[in-house]
Amino acid sequence: MPIFRALSVVLAALLLGCASGPPGAAYPGTGLTVYTRQAPSKAESVSREAAAFLEDLGNYLQLQVPPAKLLRIYLYRNRCALWRQLSGATPSLCWRPGACYETGEAYVVALSGNPEKRAVQNTLRHELTHYLIAVHFCGIPPWIDEGLAQVMASGPPFPHLEEDLPESVRKEAERGGKRRCLQLLRIPPGRRLNPSQYRIACALTYYLLCRSQEAPPGALLRFLEASRPDIPPEKAFAASWGVSMEEACEAMAASAGAGTAERGAGDRRR
Questions:
Q1: Residue pLDDT, tens place only, 128-181
Q2: Exposure letters 100-138 (e unless 16+ CB within 10 A, then b)
Q3: What pTM does this model have?
Q4: How far from the centroid of its chain's Cα atoms is residue 31's Cα?
Q5: Which element (helix H / strand E) includes 183?
Q6: Which candidate, 215, 141, 146, places its Cα nearest to that of 183?
């Protein structure tokens, strides 16, 4: 028994131990550094795509992209290696396909897989959105943090959702309705969203960005700046978006229902 116990301790240490340092070689790029053991061509591809996305996103949100030393991208070959890194660095995120977290020296965006795959590219854009928002704002509600990352993950032109996203997001928004939407809006900073809340956050963020009649980031930036502990959430929301929480949730749910009805009518005509 002592031998098996010792082996168990060693195995746990290997799998769950402290986060290792950056994986592989460093590939400095524009505004960031990629670390990976994958082929140099893949590292350079990630570096180019990340830099281009951050420039596009910064221009859209009218936010300055930080200097290179602030961002490190850890690109792992597989999910097992990513899981091991996240288990040590930020255990609450270890089962996710990617993560963005802060260390004493820099922000880290960690992900795995072949950067030529669309899913990996979406994960990269998602986490880079978290990074750019985290650099400029703190203590924002989780619904806008996750909702914005999901919408921006589809890439420019902003805002849009990729073809396979709108239907699942629309159905969740219609199913959840006003009640779940309002519950989502009142979740305080620092809390995690469940899968249903995650999709409703995407639907609501997309709806709010599309309905704005002013320059796209105007209402969004006002809301991010107004989201502070000393301002009630309802007041910050209404003053920034120009509608109350209740009105926004009702309109979002109605829009989702109308979209489902239109799709059903189109299917019947076929």
A1: 999 999 999 999 999 999 999 999 999 999 998 887 667 888 888 888 888 999
A2: bbeeeeebbbbbbbebeeeebbbbbbbbbbbbbbebebe
A3: 0.87
A4: 19
A5: helix 166-185
A6: 141
